Amino acid sequence: MIRWRLDGSDRLRTLHELSQLRSAIEPLAARLAAAHASPEQRATLVKAVLGMVEHGDRADEPVYLQHDIDFHAAVLRGSGNPYLAGLTDVVAELLHGRTAHALMPHRADETALRMHQEVAAAITSRDPEAAATAMAAIVTEADDAVEAMAKPGT
User: Fold this and answer.
1) CATH number of the domain that residue 42 is part of
2) Per-residue pLDDT, 7
3) pTM over 0.70
4) Smallest Cα–Cα separation from 17: which of 29, 4, 6, 30?
5) Range from 3-7, 13-17, 86-90 carrying the lowest mean pLDDT
6) CB contact at 8 A, 27 and 91
7) How far apart are the first and last CA of the chain?
8) Is residue 138 part of a domain?
9) Spatial distance between the Cα atoms of 97 and 70, rounded to a whole number of angstroms
């Protein structure tokens, strides 16, 4: 259903609504992951961030998208909450939609990359508040970036 709505004419509204959902779940998932993520989940998270940084000059391509999806999936699964982990596909569809509909910049925003690194660092160092704060910043930045890219002339 999400992909279908993103393929429709009201995709920006759909992306914004999904960002609202993300703002409710991803900071909580990051907070919980800081307390519950296994060493393997933390390693997956770090690997995903390193991949995002490595491919940041191609942020609108599938290789970057996969690392971004892996990052968010690791946070949701690392939360230890099966219901949050169950939302992995929802977040993946939103991220896929941004790329599929040319709403990702060619070069990743340095601030966005830094925020992803901050989430990974907070989770690996088991700092729940820092993880939640950094993840909230990611979700806000992503929603703002989509809105800015959708404006004519940008």
Assistant:
1) 1.20.120.530
2) 79
3) yes
4) 6
5) 3-7
6) no
7) 29
8) yes
9) 15
Determine the Cα–Cα distance for residues 18 and 106; give it in Å rounded to an integer. Answer: 22
Q: What's the CA gap between 64 and 146, in Å, rounded?
A: 17
What tens digit of pLDDT does each residue of 72-112 get? 999 999 999 999 999 999 999 989 988 888 888 899 999 99
Dump pLDDT digits (tens) for 120-142.
999 999 999 999 999 999 999 98
Reading phi first (left if > 0) and then psi (alpha if -120 to 50, else beta), residue 61 is in: beta
* Backbone phi and psi for residue 10, each to the nearest 5 degrees, phi listed first: -105, 35
In this structure, the dihedral spanned by the alpha carbons of residues 86, 92, 69 and 123, taken in order and rounded to 10 degrees, is: -40
In the chain, % of residues over pLDDT 70: 96
Please state the domain count of the chain. 1
Question: For residues 13 and 34, what is the distance between their CA atoms, to the nearest angstrom?
Answer: 31
Q: How many beta carbons lie within 10 A of that of residue 43, not counting itself? A: 13
Which structural domain range is residue 63 located in? 24-150
In contact, 19 and 94? CB cutoff 8 Å: yes
From CA 60, how far away is CA 104, in angstroms rounded? 5
